[in-house]
């Protein structure tokens, strides 16, 4: 299905950049907020009967052992690539967050109660027994635990949320592996940097298990994302941009769609401030390939950035990756050169513009008979089997055709 718009839509990939977070600022998870289990690089496996509510995925690695997942399963596609970027950015923000407490021992629990804050441990850390997190009546209270090494929980350890504390505002970051022993009741988002994440048999997690590099393993657990996860509505197959003089041509395709309402094309000159420039209607729900395109005016900036914002019927949205385009020349024909010309039949076609603008090249003799046709751009040609004389080349761009004369000498 093809969908077009007369409005100009330009979009960009939203890469999150973070400075040191202030007290009480939760990490921005981006698209990773929609996942319950995710690893950038690593396998994802389940043993036993695990109940999962939320999306699961890996960008590089196998997924095995999972039965019914109350959410989407994503593997090595545009969604997992974006999620990978966001998980790494979220861990970076978490690790750069300024601590409010550096004096706590590496061992947490034992029935203690902690108020909101950012607790930093320089080495490995652990939880054993009961740990109470007290929001003191503030539903926005944020609890962050940072470990300079691995993080573990003892068997049957329990995190209790009291006085308005929310699992959506609890974060655990480890520079290494995270291993939760059997029967652990955990709350919050766990992010392992360069380490695996696992939950032993019979555990319960209200939150997320994420890793920058490492396997994610669960063993007959109950895991759910209560923080407003949505099943991501599209699988973006491709997103490309080409330019032709003052116009930009954006094309994208989806492998599947679920409740997809529309696309908003956005443009930015510096990848930070984005402006919506058009709307393209989505296919709703579909399991087949859908192709979309949009043509609009190109910015006068040397480089322009574009992304697609996809919105479903519930108002939820996700972003594509970013496409960067250089400013196109106004004089396309001056960028096309045949050399040598005249020749003995072998010559090159040089094009200093965007070669993706060329969708075919045709060569005719002086009687109008077609001798050759290429698909897309081609640089080298050989007409040495043809006699001397004048021949004609037509270079077909997406916006127009350019005619060039070829001379084959004796």
Describe this structure in words.
This protein has 410 residues and is mainly beta. It has 2 domains: 1-328, no CATH class; 332-408, Macroglobulin (MG2) domain (Immunoglobulin-like), CATH 2.60.40.1930. The chain has 1 helix and 37 strands. The strands form 6 sheets. Strands 2, 4, 5, 7, 8, 11, 14, 17, 19, 21 and 23 form an 11-stranded parallel sheet that branches. Strands 1, 24, 25, 26, 27, 28, 29 and 30 form an 8-stranded mixed sheet that branches. A hairpin with a 3-residue loop joins β36 and β37 (401-408). The longest helix is centred in the first third of the chain and has 19 residues, at 78-96. The protein starts with a strand and ends with a strand.
Give helix % range: under 10%
Structural class assignment: mainly beta
Shape: elongated
Most strands sheet: 11 strands, parallel
Strand tally: 37
Binned strand content: over 45%
Oligomeric organization of the protein chains? single chain
Distance separating the two termini: 52 Å
Enumerate how many helices there are, as a single number: 1
How large, in whole angstroms, is the Cα Rg? 28 Å
Average predicted confidence as pLDDT: 85
Note poorly predicted spans: 1-23, 330-334
When the domains are counted, the total is 2
């Amino acid at each position: 299905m093809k969908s077009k718009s007369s409005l100009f839509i330009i979009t960009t990939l939203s890469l999150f950049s973070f400075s040191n977070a202030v007290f009480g600022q939760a990490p921005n998870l981006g698209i990773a907020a929609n996942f319950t289990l995710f690893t950038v690089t690593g396998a994802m496996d389940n043993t036993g009967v695990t109940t999962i509510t939320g999306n699961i995925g890996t960008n590089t690695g196998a997924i095995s052992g999972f039965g019914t997942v109350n959410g989407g399963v994503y593997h090595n596609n545009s969604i997992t690539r974006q999620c990978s970027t966001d998980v790494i950015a979220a861990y970076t923000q978490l690790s750069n967050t300024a601590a409010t407490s550096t004096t706590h021992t590496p061992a947490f629990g034992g029935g203690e109660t902690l108020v909101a804050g950012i607790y930093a441990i320089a080495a490995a850390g652990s939880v054993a027994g009961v740990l109470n997190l007290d929001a003191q009546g503030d539903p926005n209270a944020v609890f962050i635990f940072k470990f300079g090494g691995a993080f573990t929980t003892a068997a049957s350890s329990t995190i209790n949320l009291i006085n308005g504390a929310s699992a959506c505002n609890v974060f655990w970051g480890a520079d290494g592996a995270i291993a939760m022993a059997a029967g652990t009741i955990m709350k919050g988002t766990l992010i392992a940097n360069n380490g695996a994440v696992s939950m032993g048999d019979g555990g319960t997690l209200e939150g997320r298990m994420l890793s920058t590099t490492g396997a994610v393993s669960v063993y007959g657990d109950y895991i759910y994302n209560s923080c407003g996860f949505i099943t991501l509505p599209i699988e973006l197959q491709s997103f490309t941009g080409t330019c032709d003089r003052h116009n930009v041509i954006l094309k994208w395709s989806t492998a599947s769609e679920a409740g997809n309402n529309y696309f908003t094309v956005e443009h930015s000159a510096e990848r930070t401030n984005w402006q919506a420039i058009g709307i393209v209607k989505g296919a709703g729900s579909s399991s087949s390939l859908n192709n979309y395109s949009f043509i609009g005016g190109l910015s006068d900036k040397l480089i322009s950035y574009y992304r697609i914002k996809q919105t479903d019927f519930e108002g939820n949205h996700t972003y594509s990756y970013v496409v960067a385009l250089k400013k196109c020349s106004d004089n396309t024909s001056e960028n096309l050169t045949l050399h040598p010309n005249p020749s003995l039949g072998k010559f090159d076609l040089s094009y200093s513009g965007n070669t993706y603008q060329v969708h075919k090249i045709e060569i005719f003799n002086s009687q109008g008979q077609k001798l050759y046709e290429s698909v897309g751009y081609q640089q080298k040609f050989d007409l040495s089997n043809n006699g001397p004389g004048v021949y004609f080349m037509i270079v077909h761009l997406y916006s127009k055709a350019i005619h060039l004369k070829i001379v084959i000498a004796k």
